[in-house]
Amino acid sequence: MRGSVTAMAAATLLMPLLGAAPSDVRGGESGLQSAFASAAAEYHVPQSVLLGVSYLQSRWDGHGGAPSVSGGYGPMHLTDARTALAGAVPHHSDGLEDPRGDSARAPLRPKATPPKNDQLPARLRTLPRAAELTGLSPRELRTDPTANVAGGAALLAAAQKELGQPLSSDPADWYGAVARFSGADDTATAAAYADDVFAVLRTGQERQTDSGQPVALAAQPGLTPDTRQLRRAGLRTLDAAETECPRKVSCEWIPAPYKEFGDSDYGNHDLGDRPAALDIDYIVIHDTEGAWDGVLTMVQDPTYVSWQYTLRSTDGHIAQHVKAKDVAWHAGNWYVNAKSIGLEHEGFLARPDAWYTEAMYRSSARLVAYLAKKYDIPLDRQHILGHDTVPGPTTPTIGGMHTDPGPYWDWRHYFELLGHPLRPTAGPHGGMVTIRPDYAANRPEYTGCASAGGPCAEHGSSAVRLHSGPGESYPLIKDIGLGTTPSKGVNDISSRVSTGQQYAVAGRDGDWTAIWYLGQKAWFKNPADRPAAVHAAGEVVTPKDGVESVPVYGRAYPEASAYPADVPVQAVSALPYTLPAGQRYVVGEKVPGEYYYAVTFDEASHKVVTGKDLYYEIQFGHRVGFVRAEDVRVIPSGS
Questions:
Q1: Which among 232, 248, 276 is the end of a domain?
Q2: Does residue 103 sit within a domain?
Q3: What is the rounded distance in angstroms from the CA atom of residue 1 to the CA atom of residue 592?
Q4: How far apart are CA 489 and CA 453, in angstroms?
Q5: Domain range holding 261?
Q6: CB 496 within 8 A of CB 407
Q7: Which residues pair with 633 in a beta bridge?
Q8: Dihedral, 308, 489, 409, 354 alpha carbons, nearest 10
Q9: Is the per-residue pLDDT at 192 higher than 80?
Q10: Is the pLDDT confidence value at 626 over 60?
Q11: Which CATH number fits the domain that encloses residue 390?
Q12: Is residue 102 part of a domain?
C-alpha cells in the first residue's frame, strides 16, 4: 500500500508557488516593492538580487517586526539573536517524555542543560552590522520594513566590496556576495544558499505578503551566475564524507556517540541494519526548542538522546548525527523510533512569531523528498509525521507525549515544496476530507505561549479546532486518553486537526463538517467561501460486521508466539480508545507486527521479531494509531 514518490519533487522546489511571475513589475508598486527599488538604487545592488535574497529569507514577509527562530528580523532577516534566543531549553530536556519509548528498558529522562551562547557567531549578528553601514538605528532595522530592506542592501554591497567585486548591475556578478549574505562559514552551505537564490531569480516569484502588499520578481530564465567568486570567500570545507543527504543541500557529519557509560548503560542510539532488517516507514518532523549550537552540543552527549538530522534556520544547513540504518531515540514510541528517521528543526513551538525561514523549509523539503524516495516512504501525513502525531505506545505514556512542531508549522507550504501539494482528490461525495485551511488567514485562539493561560499572539496556523456539535458554542472534543478538560492551550492537541491530515466525513450541517475522531463525531467550521478542508477519497477501515467496537493500539507489536526464547515478550497493549461500529477511519498502511529488541550495547544481541498478525495504521485523532487487520474491514470512503 505504498504511495509513489513524485519524480518532480526536486523540480517543484524551484517553481513559483503562487503563479507565474509577471514580465514587468512596474506601475502600481506597493510600498515594499518601492522599498526594494529605492534600496537597490542607493546601494547599487541589482533589485532582482535584493528581492531574491529576501524571498529566500522571509518570502518578503515582515512578521510584524517579530524575530524568527534564530533572531532574524524583517524581510531581509537581519539577525540580532542575543535577546531572541534567551532562555531556550531543548524539548527533550523537560523530563516528561521517554524519547526512547521502549517499555523493555527503564524510562530515559534526559536532563542535559544547553551551553550558554556567550559568543554568538557572525550569522546571528547581521543587524548590528547593518546599523553600522546605514546609520539607521537597530530599532528601525527591526521594526521598519523599508529600513530593513536598506540594511540588507548595505550588507550585500559590503560583501561584494570585500570580495573585490564591482557593484555591477548584472545579477550574475553577485553570486559570491549572496553566498556571503547567508552567514554560513563553510563553502557548501554558502553555495547551496546562493544556488537557491539564483534559482528564485530564474523562475521569478510573486505573492502577497503578510501585511497585504503585492511583491513581484520577474523571471530571468537564462541567468547564469559566476560561481567562481566563492573560491575567494575564505570559507571552511565541511566534513560531508559520512553524510546521507541529497546533492542540493549542504550537509555535515556531526556524529552522535555510540558509547558505554555508567552501570552498563549506553547511548544515545542503537545500531541497526535498516532497511534490510526493518523497513523505514516514517519521517518525524520535530522542532528543537533551542538554538543550533546548544542542540548540537547535546546530541553529542552520550547520556542525552539522538535524532538523525538537525536543520539550521538561518541558511538551511543540515547536520547528520545518526546513520539511517541505525535507530535514534527521538519520538517517544519505540515502534516508531525503530521504523523512522527523525529531523529536528531549529525552532520553538510556543513562540508563534518566531518564524521559520524559507531557506530551512526548502532544505528540509529537499531532504525529506530524498529520504522518501530512497526508502519508499509515501509523502502524506500518515508517514511524514509531526512529533505531535506520534501516538503514545501505552496508556500511561499518552499525557507525556510531545506536541511539536505545533500549530505554527506551515504544513501546506511544506507539502508544496515536497512536490505533493494538498489538492482535492474527489467531489463532495468522496467520503473523506483533507484538512487544508489558508495558513495566513486561519488564526485560531491559543493560550499558554508566553505565560500559563495567557493569550498567544494572533498568528496564522495549520490547525483547525474541533467541537462536539456544529457550532462554536458546543464544547471542545475531549481526548479520554489525556483525562483532562480540553482547552485552547497551544500544547493541547486533544481537539484539533492539522493541515494534510485526512478523516472520514461523519456529517454536514450548514458551514460545519463532522469527521470521525477518537471514537466520536467531531465538528469543524468549513464554510464554502473560506474552506478549512478539501474533498478527498480513499480507503477507510470500519469494524467487521457484528463487532460492537475494536481496540486501538499505539504500536504494532507481534503476537506473543512470535518471540524467540531469548527475547522477552512485549505486551500487545491497547490504548484507552476504541473504534466503534459504524465509524470509519482513513487507512495509512498495512504493516506486520514488529519489535526491534535492542537493550544492550552489544549489537550481536539485537533482533527483529516479526509476527503473523497484521495491522492497519489509521488517522484516529490528532495522532495516528493502529488496529489489527483481523478486527476490521477496508472499504472505499465513498461507499
A1: 232
A2: no
A3: 13
A4: 7
A5: 238-421
A6: yes
A7: 542
A8: -100
A9: yes
A10: yes
A11: 3.40.80.10
A12: no
